[in-house]
Design goal:
Keywords: Copper, Hydrolase, Metal-binding, Oxidoreductase, Transferase, Zinc. This protein has 235 residues and is α/β, with parallel strands linked by helices. It is built from six helices and twelve strands.
Length: 235
């Protein structure tokens, strides 16, 4: 899509040591802060971005949204799970290690959003909240381009039956089974169902399952591990 840029990292090309090797972009997982800063600089520069012009979040598995027009600077990073901007050239970033990174952009309106959709965020409605915030800034759902990145797949995200039922009661499309036939949740499928109901038609979903891919961080697989990032920005 002309004017809209989307990018998802893997775990390689950074400076972090095990168990965060290599390109850990998460600052709250126990990694050396200096390594994380270097990794964020490396990732941004590889995308042609100014590292100082990337907006991060303090993600808490909720549905709160922050509208931003500049980096946080010395201000505290807010506890939100989506950021939205109408400032072209400002990159928005979301951290994940099994949850679904959701990147959204309306190039015509010049509005972009990044959302962190894990199972709790899916149920809480973080993605619809992000789309509503975009619409308030002039975006139209029919023009929004949506890309979701590497995440744990429905075959691998095993949960108790009661948890699957709770999620499916809110979003039936997330109902899933593992290859063994045990209860599971497909968060990516749930996110795309929500986007479809909102009128977002231009969507693409990464085929990568983080738990199955050794090239990606997975909290469910490794527990102590790094974080991937998704980036969205508009020219």
């Amino acid at each position: 899509m002309s004017g809209a840029h989307f990018a998802f990292t893997d775990r390689w090309g950074g400076v972090s040591a095990a168990p965060y090797e290599e390109l850990n972009l998460g600052g709250a997982v126990g990694d050396d802060p200096g390594a994380v800063r270097t990794n964020r600089e490396l990732a941004a520069k590889a995308l042609g971005l100014d590292p100082a012009r990337v907006v991060w979040m303090n993600q808490v598995h909720g549905a709160d949204v922050a509208v931003v027009d500049e980096p946080w600077g010395d201000r505290p990073v807010p506890e939100v799970d989506a950021v939205v901007t109408a400032r072209r050239g400002l990159a928005l970033a979301v951290l994940t290690a099994d949850c679904v990174p959701v990147l959204l952009a309306d190039p015509v309106a010049g509005v972009a959003a990044a959302a962190h959709a894990g199972r709790p965020g899916l149920v809480a409605g973080v993605v619809p909240a992000a789309v509503r915030a975009m619409v308030a800034l002039g975006a139209e759902p029919g023009r929004i381009v949506a890309r979701t990145g590497p995440a744990v797949c429905g075959w691998c995200y095993e949960v108790p039956e009661t948890m699957r039922a709770e999620v499916a009661a809110v979003e039936p499309a997330a109902y899933a089974e593992t290859r063994r036939g045990t209860p599971a949740v497909d968060v990516s499928a749930g996110v795309h169902a929500q986007l479809d109901r909102l009128g977002v038609r231009d969507r693409a979903r990464s085929p990568v399952c983080t738990l199955e891919s050794e090239d990606h961080f997975s909290y469910r697989r490794d527990r102590t591990t790094g974080r991937l990032a998704g980036y969205v920005w508009l020219d």
